[in-house]
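Journal club prep, notes for RB
We'll compare a predicted complex against what the paper describes. Inputs for the magnesium ion case:
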Amino acid sequence: MAEKKIQSIRGMNDLLPTESALWQQVEKTVKMILNSYGYNEIRTPIVEDTGLFKRAVGEVTDIVEKEMYTFNDRNDESITLRPELTAGCVRAGIEHGLLYNQEQRLWYFGPAFRYEKPQKGRYRQFHQFGVEVFGLEGPGIDAELIILTARLWKALGIDQHTSLELNSIGSLEARAEYKHALVQYLEAHKEQLDEDCKRRMYTNPLRVLDSKNPSLQEILNNAPKLFDYLDSESKNHFDGLCQLLNNAGINYTVNQRLVRGLDYYNRTVFEWVTNSLGAQGTVCGGGRYDGLVSQLGGQATPGVGFAIGFERLVLLIQTVNNTLKNDNTIDVYMISSAELIEGKHTTAIAQQLAEKIRDIMPEKRIMTNYGTTNFKKQFTKADKYGAKIAVIIGGNEALENTAVIKELQTGNQYALPQEMIAEKCLEILEKGE
Ligand code: ATP
Ligand code: MG
């Protein structure tokens, strides 16, 4: 009897070669841009103490209330697969003394886990690319993060399909005062609210503003505005940010209902959204979190950051930019007769030549044929791999210390001494670029 097939966990996806090359290209672009601003990578564990997320993200958030993968390990400690990466970053920064009285410009890339209903752009394992900057207080760095992401959208060919929403949620005190006014307003309209909002109204009233329920939009649009309760420092910070963005030529909409889902934000919050992905339209979200480091037990240190949902970014690229594609093509395909002739093995020669080509072109993709010895089939494979050049070693070539180069785009074909093959491949490929 055949064994039952084991399947992947729902909402957790395999990244296959049909997409992995595109992922690599996008990753490379993001890393290049982060590097160009002087940011450094940090990698933290995928699993953390559950208490970290409860404290950092907040007890009454969607994430902590219903989305975390939390387990007891064999020692009965409660551990959680990270639902986001900021908390771990701050934990590591405190633990290694990277934050207090210092500047850190960090980036990370890796998987995050949330128990959500899987759908397009929403998964249970997904990936975040993010940035966290510590030790800088003024709006300059907030603006830089936005300028940096704008540069990224441009480099990825999606700048025409993303727009920036911006808000300030002020200080903790200003928010407390506002919450009071908001709850009063919501109480007055309680009959019209849905169950979710009624529940949120007292636990996390700001999140009520996030509701996407169409029948509530008018009530929520008429609710008191957090903006009118901002403390003067937060107002100045926001004005400063807007001015810098104006100077940088970055368009934005002030969305007074943008509050973001996590507890740790203060002052600046922003989202890059798109209309091209349906309901899962937020590609990047971020903001300032000046209170988080001390909330996690460190010395007070200002912080600001953002996270990009990598799957959504790739989906958007696939939807709107057809110049950036999954490219698995091979540059040089090594063909041989796989025979031993007067002590020389043509496969060995093919392998040695391939090594020489890799020595001088480490970025190119050189593939050697194995299996079939039929030349016609080998050429078919070379075409299938999209090779630009085939290098062919048969019995005659082995005897004469030569190899045949076939330029597959033109059909040009000629024999050369083996020691000239690598240089010739380089020349052909450089010419083609
Ligand atoms: P959403 O409102 O879409 O649930 P969020 O506010 O929960 O997003 P954040 O916690 O700000 O999201 O995470 C940053 C980014 O990570 C999001 O803007 C989104 O692009 C991406 N993201 C969040 N949750 C998921 C998920 N389950 N699957 C794929 N991407 C996600
Ligand atoms: Mg969410």
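Talking point for the session: The mean pLDDT is 95.
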